[in-house]
Amino acid sequence: MSKRGRFITLEGGEGVGKSTNVGFVAEWLEAQGLEVVCTREPGGTERGEAIRALLLDPAPQEPLHVDAELLLMFAARAQHLAEKILPALARGAWVVCDRFTDATFAYQGGGRGIAKERIAVLENFVQQGLSPDLTLLLDMPKEAAKQRLEVRLRDRHEQLDRFEQEQADFFQAVRDAYLARAEEAPERFAVIEAQHSLEEVQTQLRKTLSARVTAWR
Ligand SMILES: Nc1ncnc2c1ncn2[C@@H]1O[C@H](COP(=O)(O)OP(=O)(O)OP(=O)(O)O)[C@@H](O)[C@H]1O
Ligand SMILES: Cc1cn([C@H]2C[C@H](O)[C@@H](COP(=O)(O)O)O2)c(=O)[nH]c1=O
Question: Which parts of the sequence belong to the Thymidylate kinase-like domain (predicted)?
């Protein structure tokens, strides 16, 4: 029977470079001879992507209640775990996921103000003990991240989604919540200084991955 794969997540606020670096992390792991499944949240499955569209809708017809937002995140996650993440880990593949439950604690907890104890109830119910083996937290000041996001939106002719339309204090609360979680679980988190050039960020990522993969073997 093959050994269970490892579960790696990338986290951080808007525009810090998660999507840019998911492929880098996956390619680095593949170069070590590992099977890698790349995915994202909310989403990652057909139903999860439909829920994502509801959650990110830039111009919803009516406001989305914060509890409904929280439950939709976990509904998408339950489907994602059952259909994609758990089968991949069970056959020995490594899963690289752009956001997971730390995002819920940061956005719905820090940003929206939902008590972390309530989020933890859903985390236990849906994940039944599963949590990432390594979380790469890309951290940088929110002002610089916003500038990057603006460049991306302009270059790709995209519009701000429902979360990206939030105000500066929301993004500060999200960043603070992420950093608090990293402090609570230093053995799982690696905080990457994301304000540097892409080359420097990827050097930090490579060093972190190399140390972890060696330790796990
Ligand atoms: N280290 C870097 N230096 C300069 N620009 C960067 C760096 N990393 C990413 N970028 C650019 O910043 C923009 C945002 O990056 P990216 O889309 O990867 O962020 P993200 O964290 O996935 O954002 P979101 O959460 O909003 O989807 C992109 O245009 C990307 O090319
Ligand atoms: C998993 C998760 C995500 N979110 C938010 C964070 C982002 O604003 C969007 C996803 O968009 P991205 O371009 O892929 O970053 O969803 C959240 O609020 N809670 C969560 O659990």
Answer: 10-204
